[in-house]
Amino acid sequence: MIEVRNARKSYGETVVVDDVSITVPAGGVISLIGANGAGKSTLLSIISRLLPAPAGTVMVEGMDVTTTPGDVLARRLSILRQDNQMTARLTVRDLIAFGRYPHSKGRPTVEDRGHVERVIRYLELEAVAHRFLDELSGGQRQRAFIAMVLCQDTRYILLDEPLNNLDVKHAVAMMKLFRRTADAFGKTIILVLHDINFASCYSDRIVAMRDGRIAFEGPPEEIITPAVIREVYGVEAAIQEIDGKRVALYFR
Amino acid sequence: MKGLVLAAAGVTALAAASLFVGVSDVTVGALLGGMSDEATQVMLVSRIPRTLALLLAGSGMAVSGLILQMLARNRFVEPSTAGTAESAVFGMLMVTLLAPGTPMLGRMLVAGACALAGTALFLGILRRMPLRSPLVVPLVGIMLGAVITASTEFVAYRFDMMQSVRAWETGDFSGVLRGRYELLWIGAALTAVAYAAADRFTVAGLGEDFTTNLGLNHRRVVSLGLVIVSLVTAAVIATCGMIPFLGLVVPNLVSLTRGDNMRRSLPWVALSGAGLVLACDIAGRLVIRPYEIPIGTTMGIVGSAIFLYLLLRKNAHAG
Fold first, then answer.
1. How many angstroms separate the CA of residue A81 from the nearest CA in chain B?
2. What is the C-alpha R_g of chain A?
3. Looking at the complex, does the CB of residue A87 fall below 8 Å from at least one CB of chain B?
4. Are the beta carbons of A71 and B203 separated by less than 8 Å?
5. Interchain proximity A71–B215, CB inside 8 Å
6. Residue B73: which of A69, A87, A94 has the nearest Cβ?
7. CB-CB: which of A84, A88, A102 is closest to B205?
8. I need a labelling partner for B284 at 20 to 30 A (CA). Which of A13, A168, B85, B122 fits?
9. Domain ranges in chain B?
10. Which tens digit of pLDDT belongs to each residue from B164-223?
11. Domains in chain A, CATH or no CATH each
């Protein structure tokens, strides 16, 4: 369980996360949606201790993220931010293997190597595993980063816009993989998503943010409604139900 | 692994050549025959120390460049484009002026402390810079270095110390004798520490967020790296003076073929650094014999040529 209590963060005069309290129960896929600048990424960074919040507390399974030793937390929670610029030239396999660092401390065991190869297979990166990251396409690189985080094998996985740079085929495959990982291994996966239809079709819960606050929270059937989408994004959307999944049409 | 053995063999061959190149004639025959005491003396007092100094300084500076590039996450930094070398020279000048009786080790430590402060200042400036274009980063370092050098030279000019400053700024191994290079072993020990911590530096090279996510304290990794880089640079400057371009071109060349997983690339960087310095020094001893060209000059020519190649080659990925 992740418990956020009264988290606040501002840049100068602008409050980006405004007194947010939220409890995320363990297990399942949770999507964080909202307009640009709503505070989704900042909240994710605060939860994962990448960004210190001047006020509020974040507890992951009872551990305060600001005081728990980094390596203990790294075996419990992993985070991937968006826009990862890389100057170091690593091969895909090396990068993914570094996901095992919290467990192996640089001395990989047979089990660690097994993890690496399995993740490479899951993300269909076999063909490029030996290539350097700067020789890959944006989508391949994004999948390699996600692979590294999955290889970390933590109970909580936080991903900021993981579908960035992915084509439709890979985006769907990625969401299916998250779904499977959550269902089969009991992981808690928190995603920042821009595509509300992906959020609708694959999440157990959706958290909608607006102006640094949590505006709505609930299962997809409660969140993917014309009223909520109007409130959160300020656009009119028609909701269709297709094969039991709610899909928002907002292309008008 | 096979390649590494070959590279080591190449460096060994260069080191052997370095033992037998110089003004006085030293041959294997003379040494083995025990005929010439003079040859043995030259070997023990000058040639072996010089060759060892080249090996240690070359590998140390190249590895320092690699560590700095990982910490600053920029391909164009090295001790002389990050304020490190200039601060070390400043420290050498200050300790020579204020406490002239200080032994070599003490001087080196003062220079190392100054180098540490200068490099930390450089990284501090980078942290506060909103836009980190890959090309601006070394420019900032060069400007910082120029400011520090200006103060160094102002003081040196006032106290008639310009000659010493020039000696620290320009690498030259001709003065290396037994008893005057041993500080460089500290550099070798620190290079070994860097190898032990190679994974941490690679992780730091992925960026602060990745480092934190993987459970490492980014600040601590950076501090360890800065201490290594500063002390190695100070040891090199105190014994033989600054070797330009080395820390810049060697890690870049190795990165092209071997990548940046430091566990794997560091041995290559150390060997190539030692090899390049040996080759440049031997060339400097040969071109205008019986005189010598200091390594600061030969390395400047070779290093800048390699650097231009790196910049201009096709598909160059900046930064």
1. 8
2. 18
3. yes
4. no
5. yes
6. A87
7. A88
8. B85
9. 2-312
10. 999 999 999 988 889 889 999 999 999 999 999 999 999 999 999 999 999 999 999 999
11. 1-76+154-219 (3.40.50.300), 87-152 (no CATH)
Per-residue pLDDT tens for A36-54?
999 999 999 999 999 998 8
| The two three-digit tokens of residue A87, written as one number | 């100057």
For residue range A75-131, what is the model confidence (pLDDT) as tens digits?
999 999 988 888 889 999 999 999 999 999 888 899 999 999 999 999 999 999 999
What distance, in Å, lies between the first and last C-alpha atoms of chain B? 28
Question: Nearest-CA residue of chain A relative to B217?
Answer: A70
Distance from CA of B89 to the nearest CA of A (A): 30
- For B284, the token pair is 């400097």
User: Is any Cβ of chain B less than 8 angstroms from the Cβ of A85?
Assistant: yes
> If you average pLDDT over every residue of chain A, what do you get?
94
Closest CA to A59 of A24, A31, A12: A24
In angstroms, the CA A197 to CA A237 distance is 12
Cα(B80)–Cα(B171) distance, integer angstroms:
12
A·B CB contacts under 8 A: 79
Q: Which of these, B285, B297, B277, lies nearest to B58 by C-alpha position?
A: B277
User: Residue B244 in 3-state DSSP?
Assistant: coil
With cut-offs at 50, 70 and 90, classify the pLDDT of residue B40: confident
Q: Is B128 on the interface with A (CB under 8 A)?
A: no
B206/A132 CB distance under 8 A: no
CATH 1.10.3470.10 fits B2-312, yes or no: yes
CA A180/CA A174 separation, integer angstroms? 10
Q: B255 at the A interface (CB within 8 A)?
A: yes
Instruction: Give the one of B74, B216, B259 whose C-beta lies nearest to A90's C-beta.
Output: B259
Cα(A135)–Cα(A144) distance, integer angstroms: 12
**Both tokens of residue A150?**
């999955």
Q: Are B268 and B4 spatial neighbours (Cβ–Cβ below 8 Å)?
A: yes
- Using the Cβ of B27 and the Cβ atoms of chain A, whether some distance falls under 8 Å is answered with no
